[in-house]
Design goal:
By secondary structure, the protein is an alpha+beta fold. The chain folds into three domains: about 170 residues, Uridine Diphospho-n-acetylenolpyruvylglucosamine Reductase, domain 3, CATH 3.30.465; about 80 residues, Alpha-Beta Plaits (2-Layer Sandwich), CATH 3.30.70.3450; about 80 residues, Alpha-Beta Plaits. Helices cover about 30% and strands about 25% of the residues. The strands form five sheets. The chain has a five-stranded antiparallel β-sheet. The chain is globular, with a radius of gyration of 21 Å. The protein starts with 7 loop residues before the first helix and ends in a 16-residue tail after the last helix.
C-alpha cells in the first residue's frame, strides 16, 4: 500500500519513520517512468500526487511555482494560455511504454531531467529550475534557489536536484523559469543524406546565424524511403522568413532545403519510429560520436534516430548491454537503458557504470542527503555504488 502524505509535515514524518525502521521508500508521481530501472521489490511507494496545484504564476516575470504532483499537461496548457512555454520541451514518457499520455507530473519531469528537441538550444530542466522545496532522506526540510532568475549565494542545489531521479530528496514544490512562445515555427528538411552528411549539415546549421532551435536526423520515416534531416526555425514571422532563406544558402551544398511537417517533432517526443519490444537505449555523445554509434556492427532489426544535432542517439536493438555501452564509450558518451522487459531490467543497470572516482563522489552526495539510504531502492544500483 502506498504512503500518500498530504503536506510537508506528513511527508517528513513518513521519511523519518522509514529511516528509523530501516525501510525503503520509492518516490512516485504519475508513474510514467516507473518501468525505467531495476524493479524495486522491497520498497514502499511514496505517492506525491497530493502536492499538486499552481502556487504562484507571474507571467510578466516569467516565473511559475507549482506543486510537484501537478500533471505536466496542465502546466503546459496553463502557460500556453499566456503565450508562454516550458522552453526545455519536457515530454511524457508514458507512450514509450504503451501507456496513454497524461500521467507525467512536473516533479517527475524535473527529477528525471527530461528535455525534448529544444534542449539543444534552450538547455535542460536544470537550466530552468530556479528553486525548490523538498524533504531529504534524512527527514529534514530543504529549500534551494529562489524565485528570481539570478541567485548566487550558497550551493546551486536546484541543479543538483534536477536529474537526481528521487535519490536525494522528495520534491514538493518547484519554481521554473518560463519563456514566451515563438509567434511562428517552421520545419525545413533535407532528404537522402547519409549519417556523415547529416551531422555535417546540422553542424553547419547550428554554427550559422540562422538561429536554429532544433535539429534531428531520421534515417527513414514511415511514409518515405529516404532519410530526413530536420531543422526547426522559430520566432517572429519576418525573422523566420529571413533565417530560412539564410539556412537555404548555408545548406545549399547538402541539397535543396524543403518544407517539412511539424508532426516530425511530436514523433520524436514519443519515439514513434522506434516502437517495438526490443530494448530502447538513450545514448548521449558528442555529435561527432553519433557516427561511431550508428555505424557500429549492430544485429539485424536495430533502429535508431538522432536528436540534439547528433548529441542524442535513441537506439532500439537486440544487442547485449555490454556491446551497447562499449560502443557508446567508443563514441565518447554513455548509454542509459530506458525500456526493456523485466528480466533485462533486473540484470542490466539503467545507468551507464560510472568511473570509480565519479561513483565515490555520487555516493558521498547521496549519503549527505540520505544518510541511511531511505531512497536507495536498488532501482539505479546498490547503496554502496
Amino acid at each position: 500500500m502506498a504512503i500518500r502524505p498530504t503536506d510537508s509535515a506528513e511527508l517528513a514524518d513518513a521519511i523519518r519513520d522509514a529511516r528509523a525502521h530501516g525501510r525503503r521508500l520509492a518516490i512516485r508521481g504519475g508513474g510514467s517512468k516507473a518501468a525505467i530501472g531495476t524493479p524495486a521489490t522491497d520498497a514502499e511507494a511514496l505517492d506525491l500526487r497530493a502536492f499538486a496545484g499552481v502556487i504562484d504564476y507571474d507571467p510578466a516575470e516569467l516565473v511559475l511555482t507549482v506543486g510537484t504532483g501537478t500533471p505536466l499537461a496542465e502546466i503546459e496548457a496553463l502557460v500556453a494560455g499566456e503565450g508562454q512555454m516550458l522552453a526545455f520541451e519536457p515530454f511524457d514518457h508514458g507512450p514509450l511504454f504503451g501507456a496513454e499520455a497524461g500521467l507525467a507530473t512536473i516533479g517527475g519531469v524535473v527529477a528525471a531531467g527530461v528535455a525534448g528537441s529544444q534542449r539543444l538550444t534552450q538547455g535542460g530542466a536544470r537550466d530552468h529550475l530556479l528553486g525548490f522545496r523538498a524533504v531529504a532522506g534524512s527527514g529534514e526540510a530543504l529549500i534551494g534557489g529562489a524565485k528570481v532568475v539570478k541567485n548566487v549565494t550558497g550551493y546551486d542545489l536546484p541543479k543538483l536536484m534536477a536529474g537526481s531521479w528521487g535519490r536525494l530528496a522528495a520534491l514538493t514544490e518547484i519554481t521554473l523559469k518560463v519563456l514566451p512562445s515563438p509567434r511562428e515555427q517552421v520545419t525545413r528538411v533535407l532528404h537522402g543524406l547519409d549519417i556523415d552528411a547529416a551531422v555535417a549539415a546540422m553542424a553547419t546549421a547550428l554554427g550559422s546565424q540562422a538561429d536554429v532551435a532544433a535539429a534531428a536526423y531520421l534515417p527513414a520515416v514511415a511514409d518515405e524511403q529516404m532519410s530526413v534531416t530536420a531543422f526547426r526555425i522559430q520566432g517572429f514571422g519576418p525573422s523566420v522568413t529571413a533565417r530560412c532563406a539564410m539556412l537555404e544558402r548555408k545548406l545549399d551544398a547538402f541539397g535543396g532545403l524543403q518544407p517539412g511537417d511539424a508532426a516530425l517533432w511530436r514523433d520524436l517526443a514519443t519515439l514513434a519510429p522506434l516502437e517495438g519490444d526490443a530494448p530502447l537505449w538513450r545514448i548521449n555523445v558528442p555529435p561527432r560520436g553519433a557516427r561511431t554509434v550508428t555505424l557500429a556492427d549492430w544485429p539485424d532489426g536495430t533502429r535508431w534516430l538522432l536528436d540534439w544535432a547528433g548529441g542524442l542517439v535513441w537506439l532500439t536493438t537486440g544487442a547485449d548491454a555490454e556491446t551497447v555501452r562499449t560502443v557508446a564509450t567508443r563514441g565518447g558518451g554513455h548509454a542509459m537503458l530506458v525500456r526493456a522487459d523485466t528480466a533485462t531490467r533486473t540484470s542490466v543497470a539503467a545507468f551507464h557504470p560510472a568511473s570509480p572516482g565519479v561513483a565515490a563522489l555520487e555516493y558521498r552526495v547521496r549519503r549527505a542527503f540520505d544518510p541511511d539510504g531511505v531512497f536507495e531502492t536498488g532501482r539505479f544500483g546498490n547503496a554502496g555504488a
